[in-house]
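User: Is it possible to get a 3D structure for a protein together with its bound compound? The compound here is zinc ion. I've pasted both below.
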Amino acid sequence: MNKFSLLLNGLSDLIFPFSCAVCHKGLEVRLGRQYLCAECLGKIRLIIKEDICSCCGKKSAISPCMSCKEKKHYFKKARSAGIYDGVLKECIHLLKYNKKTYLARPLGKFLIDLACYKQDLSKAELLVPVPLDKRRYRERGFNQAQLLAAVVSKEIGIPISTSLHRTRNAPSQTQLSHQERLKNVKGLFKVARNNGVINKNILLIDDVFTTGATADECARALLTAGAQGVNVLTVARSE
Ligand SMILES: [Zn+2]
Ligand SMILES: [Zn+2]
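Assistant: Yes, that's possible. Here is the predicted structure of the complex:
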């Protein structure tokens, strides 16, 4: 093998990893877009349409769920492809914290295929990724929500708007209670002028939906800027 092919192979190893991203078992299919082995794929807990809250998408025997009955959301519907644990959580962590950006593609496709959301997807006119704050964007070098939105945009042919911005750097939400999250995100987002969101049906894209505080605040900013309605689509959600 000459130096050139070695280099090419090295590059393609970087671009197309030949082992499962989660358990590192070798994959049989070497070309194409297989990043997870069948065993790991099978462990992902999918969210099935029938037993979810019609509003927030949470697994619930009653719809709307208790918390949506108590509190109205600014978004119309939030849907996710799977539960945020195990393999799916690992994949999202690999994407965000280990910079395995190639996982945006299978996760984005997974999101489209399994989000039990096709009807609402077809109504969307504009995709808006949840923005990262500037400090975190500098550290990470990319916004995972934007990478996911790019995959969705390519697949379903809906343009992306990056007009939603953060007004300040806010502490990470991960350790905060629901009440603290609400306070943390209040007024956190604004939409740029000449934003193209007016009278549009927006599909907000993010990696994880936890309490919905971030999605709600984004939806509020988009509606204030004149959007007609906001739906939310995430790869995963907490139970
Ligand atoms: Zn595996
Ligand atoms: Zn609900």
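The chain has two domains: 1-43, 47-237. Residues 1-43 form one domain.
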